[in-house]
Amino acid sequence: MTQLSPQDHHNRLERRYQAWRNAARKGKIVVRLGLVILLGGLAVLGSASILTRIPSEITTASFIVLFTFGYASIIGGIRVETRERRRLPQIEDHIFYLLHSVNEDLRSFGRTGLASDKEHAVSLLTECAAVIDSWTWGNLKFLRDSVGKSIVEFKLNFRGRLLVAVQRTSSESSFTVLPTLMEIEDVFEQNRLNQSDLDEWNKWLIQRDPADPSKEKFPYTAPPARQGKFSGLKSRKHQLTFLFFGLIGPALTYLLVVELSLASHDAAVYSSVAVLGIVATAYFAYLPLTKSKGRSGPDQ
Fold first, then answer.
1. If you average pLDDT over each of 46-50, 155-159, 265-269, which comes out highest?
2. 177 with 112, same domain?
3. N or C: which end of the chain has fewer CB within 10 A?
């Protein structure tokens, strides 16, 4: 069986990640379209029925059509993205894919000194650190009970030492980290990671500085602390938005139906329940799009 060259392997992975990125982009568009149909369509339909006194039969039929198309769009958009996500490479290939690009950027940075090469390398290495942070006992083939400590140490050293060293490196000193990064890339490309590799890399990352043995060559820098209750603010803002509409939407619908449309209380309750169902559907459709980032392909 012919072995793919590292570049051919990388190109093959790139095609798979590009297919996933395209599918994710299309899926998000379709989901957003579904949300517009559900929420925007409902608002327009509700306003029109109040202002023009549309017969209840037409309003009900329009509501069913909007709900069906909106719900189908949301579910369809999610299925498009999740179906392609299942075809993403395993986690070892993900790390190889990122490191291959990192090493190309660092080699270019060493030759040209272009800051953009270094910035791109740091960005990809940061993403690689996030993938390594996601290592668990179940998503790596080589894991055994005895390597748990080595894995924890490598996670810390990769982010706190290696990533920091690349951030601080100059074009002249980039060669000090490049050989080991190329070795790590090769191990993941061959899919032959074991405990001895982790121990060797940990030892290299905590070595003393030959020029000053009292110091470490790659001093550890703790990553920025999470922002406590404000961490994940963007996600929480979205959740609060759904919560707001989930509370205010049904109540406002009830008042509008009763006070302006002069409909029965039963009709108002049914309308409020329908609005709550739409908001809940939109939220649970949105939720999967914020998860499973550990296996997501690099966004470039």
1. 155-159
2. yes
3. N
Considering the domain architecture, whether residues 240 and 290 belong to the same structural domain is answered as yes
User: Is residue 274 predicted with pLDDT exceeding 90?
Assistant: no
Residue 143 confidence (pLDDT) above 70: no
Contact 235, 269 (CB under 8 A): no
Residue 72 domain-assigned (yes or no)? yes
Between CA 283 and CA 266 the distance in angstroms is: 26
Task: Provide the residue count of the chain.
Answer: 300
**Res 149 pLDDT > 90:** no
Gyration radius of the chain over CA positions: 26
- Total structural domains within the chain: 2
Cβ-based neighbours of 292, under 8 Å, separated by 6 or more = 85
Tell me the residue range of the domain where 151 lies.
91-216
Maximum CA extent, the chain: 86
